[in-house]
Amino acid sequence: MKFFTVIIICLFVISCTKPEKDLTLDVKIVEFNLTKENNRNMLMFRPNSIGYKLKVTVKNNTNQDTKFWAMSCSYQQDFTTNHSDALIVSLLPGRCDSNYPMTYDLKQGEQKDFDLHIFKDINIADNKVINNISKTKVGLIIRAETNDFRKNFDDYLDNVYSKKFIKIIWSNEINLSN
């Protein structure tokens, strides 16, 4: 009887442990309050916005290789926020010779960094919106179920254009209310 009780307790403990996520996102604000007064690109491309430069780190927490799809240059379209109605995820102009969907292959424990910008309207006056964006998360949009290049290249592009996705992996919260 004791053996049976020990087995049940072990199964209960194992079932209650929180599994590690395959991929995690960590977001850090690198620069904040970018405006047309202090940034030439903001003046030319986002004059009515306040910008935040972010470093987004995608990490593989599994004991095997993990892959995900993103564009080689315009990878910002593979990211979103939990407040997409008030915030725009984008890039300030940079160099790009060729833009195409590609898989990022992360070995066990490896990580990949992406530089993104988030913009909010300079004239936000709604306190509810301001309070909401104080708890902003960035999400990596997973658009393909497998990593078979031949099967997913067209699927990836179809999902981008139709705005379909398989799942979103969310980051830690950052405060963009300042």
Task: Spell out the key features of this protein.
about 180 residues, alpha+beta, 9 strands, globular
The total of beta strands comes to: 9
Portion in beta strands: 35-45%
Radius of gyration: 20 Å
Which outline best applies? Answer: globular
Give the count of structural domains: 1
* H/E element order: HEHEEEEEEHEHE
The level of helicity is 10-25%
Number of helices: 4
Account of the protein in words:
The chain has 178 residues and is α+β, with helices and mostly antiparallel strands. It has one domain. Helix content is 24%, strand content 39%. The chain has helices spanning 2-16, 40-45, 127-133, 149-162; strands at residues 23-34, 49-60, 66-71, 79-81, 87-90, 101-106, 111-121, 136-142, 167-174. Strands 1-2-7-5 form a 4-stranded antiparallel beta sheet, with no helix packed on it. The model is unreliable at 4-20 (pLDDT under 50).
Task: Explain the layout of strands and helices.
Elements: H1 2-16, E1 23-34, H2 40-45, E2 49-60, E3 66-71, E4 79-81, E5 87-90, E6 101-106, E7 111-121, H3 127-133, E8 136-142, H4 149-162, E9 167-174
Antiparallel strand pairs: 1-2, 2-7, 3-6, 4-8, 5-7, 8-9
Short description, anyone?
This protein is α+β, with helices and mostly antiparallel strands.
